[in-house]
Amino acid sequence: MSNDNNSIHDFDFNLICEYFSALERQGPGSKEVTLQALAFTGVRGDDARIADIGCGTGGQTLFLAENTPGQITAIDLFPGFIDILNRNAANAGLNRRIKGVVGNMESLPFGDEELDLIWSEGAIYNIGYRRGLREWFRFLKPGGYIAVTEASWFTETRPEEIEKFWNDAYPEIDTISAKVAQMQEAGFIPAAHFILPECCWTENFYLLQKTIQPEFLKKHAGNKMAEYLVVNERHEASLYAQYKNWYGYVFYIGMKPKNSHP
Ligand code: SAH
Fold first, then answer.
1. Is the minimum distance from the CB of 132 to ligand 1 under 6 angstroms?
2. What's the fold here for domain 8-255?
3. Whose CA is nearest to atom 5 of ligand 1?
C-alpha cells in the first residue's frame, strides 16, 4: 500500500481495504524472503512471543506461524484485514498460535521485554522507520530480534522524477547504509540486511493487482475514488518498472543487545 500524500489519505478507507483485501499481500514480499529473514533471527521454544505489526490480511503471518514456534500477535489498524487474517488462521488450523487484533502501531499493547521477535513487512513507514525502531525497542527481550522491510535508495543519487515521487510519498526513504546506521542508533545490533528481489514487487504485488483491477473497476463503475486508486497503483507500478535500479525494499534485521535494558 502506498503512503503517497496525493493518494492514500484522500481515499475512502473502506475502498482501500476492499481493494487490498482481494490480495494475499498488501505490500511487496515473498515466502522465500520471509524465510530468508527469519533465518537471521533466533526464535526458539513454544513459549516464544512474536508480534507481526501492520500485518494486513496476514499472508506473511500464517507463513511465519508455519516456520516458528510460539505465539504470534498480529496487529493492524484495519478491522477488515484482521477479520480476514483470523478467518484464514482458523481455516489453516493456526488460530491457537495466531491472534489477530485491531490496534495502532503507535500504541502497541505490549509490556517491556515481552517479545522475542518483532516482525513488520512493508508497514513500519506508517510510523516512520526511526520512530518505529526506537519505540518498539523496549518491547523486545534482550537478545530478541526485529525484522522489518523498508523502502531504500540503492545509490547516492537518482533521477529527479523518482526522487520527487518518494520525497512526497515517504521523505524518510534513505540509503541502505543510512538505514543500517539508524538501526544501530536506535539501540540494535544490525544483524543482517538484504534487498528484496524484483519478483516481490512485480509478480507478487503489481501483477497480482492487475488481475483484480478490472473486477474492482467494474464493481465501482463511475466511482472517481475507485478509479483514482487504480490509476495511482498503476502509476506506482510503472515508476517501479522504470526506476527499480534506484530503489527497492530492504529487509533490515537487528538484535537487541543481550545486556540491554529498556
Ligand atoms: N505486512 C503486510 C501488509 C503491509 S501494508 C504485507 O506485507 O502484506 C501496511 C499495513 O499497515 C496495512 O495493512 C495498514 O492497514 C497497516 N497500518 C497502517 N497504519 C497503521 C498503524 N498506525 N497501526 C497499525 N497498522 C497500520
1. no
2. Rossmann fold (3.40.50)
3. 26
